Amino acid sequence: MKKLLLAGSYLLIGLQAISQTSFSAQVKKYIDYDSSFIAFTHCRLADVKNLKVLEDQTVIVRNGIITAVADSKKLPPPSGSTVIDLTGKSLLPGFVLLHEHMYYANYSADFTYLHVKQLPFTFPKLYLACGATTVRTAGSVEPYSDLNLKRDIDQGKILGPEMDVTAPYLEGKGSIFPGMHELSGPAEAKAFVDFWASQGCTSFKGYMFVDKPTLKAAIDEAHAKGLKVTGHLCAVTYREAAEMGIDQLEHGFSVATDFVPNKKENACPLFAAPIASADSPKVKDLIRFLVDKKVIVTSTLAVIYNMTTLDTTIRPEVLEAMSPDTRNMFLNVYNKMRNSLGNKAMLEEMKMEKMFSDAGGLLTVGTDPTGSGATLAGYGSQQSIELLTQAGFSPIEAIRIATYNGAKALGLENKIGSIEVGKAADLVVIDGDISQHIENIRKVTWVFKQGVGFNSQKIFSSVKGEVGKY
Fold it and tell me: What CATH code is carried by the domain that includes residue 9?
């Protein structure tokens, strides 16, 4: 039964409830609200679809679904609802972040050998605490760990966001990472996609040394199964990938090899990519081409920024979260890796991402907790969103990129990504106003995932000194 309430511009709809999850004792201790009927009142609401911040709003949630949104003067809290007064606070959609990993980069003491360490306990917690209610892993090194992690989160055994699990990397010969399989060619790529799709992976990612025939075979097979492919590419250029139908490209334009002079076909000119000027005709032409091909681009500004001397301050919370040995490794790597060589490239990257969005391209955002190690899950996720404002986006535009745009990229914009009637109550409560100061997204009070409210600060506190252990 539907009832149209003419007093306000909202609908109250009878909806099928989201199935209730049974939470473990370890998860329950972080839950502040687990009511089937909630009224959020007097909030400052981020209307990301219309790029507005609406004052003094009420949001009604029944069984994990948003059933009404209206001005608080027109919508009093219904009888029997759990009322949460958000006076002075902002209500955002849950973040949908698209370049996430459940692993962290580790380096040998002499900085000569890179490997990654799976952190399936602390990283999901950090993602949820920062406001991320849905993430795509964008490449797995321990795929069964990621798949089982998703299962355990879905079953309420442990804390974490909804997960789109990306399969192991689609990599070619010459990989610099010892944990990656090197595909032999198109036939193996097709079988690889078939196998990992059968195991439950819901997306794929091309990597630096994969060649054009192998990537094309993987894209075609994934698309035949209704699954999407992104890429952090090198041997294959952005234009070549777009021509073969890739859905998304990672790291903005910072890894595009389209502008490398005399680039050889199917060869990765590792560390040879020049600093492209955002004002160059070649860059503008590539942006138009990607927009025409409807290729999505993921911004990962934090992981790039943390390797430049533009980055001058490490958040104390980041260092406090790390275990002592991880902190020592990080400080050693950070001081060696951070230099001024990438400063100009970082500034040009920001310009290109803004140009791409202004041209009609769908820009999303992710964390990528690798690089110098400064970009931790959660904390780095917030920084990635904040840096979008340095690229020229307004705070509400940056929030849209981190929410609605991510949902669109996953094909879930009718279910998540904005605060609208009929969508899942994936919500972030911020103590402060995000309309003027994007840094207020660090002040997370609660994260609601399908209507269940988790205490963000309790979660952050639970991982202090633990990140890097597990």
Answer: 2.30.40.10
Give the three-state DSSP class for 95.
Answer: strand
CA distance 165 to 177: 20
- Which residues neighbour 260 within 8 Å (Cβ) at sequence distance 6 or greater? 269, 272, 273, 274
| pLDDT tens, position by position, 92-126 | 999 999 999 999 988 766 665 567 899 999 999 99
Question: What Rg, from alpha-carbon coordinates, does the chain have?
Answer: 22
pLDDT at site 312: 86
Q: Which domain holds residue 331?
A: 95-409
Query: Which residues sit opposite 447 in a β-bridge?
Result: 428, 454
Residues sharing a CB contact under 8 Å with residue 160, sequence separation 6 or more, in sequence order: 124, 125, 127, 128, 149, 153
Residue 467 lies in a domain: no
What are the φ and ψ backbone dihedral angles of 345, each rounded to 5 degrees?
-60, -40
262 in the Ramachandran plot: left (φ > 0), alpha (ψ -120 to 50) or beta? left
pLDDT in tens, 442-458: 999 999 999 999 999 99
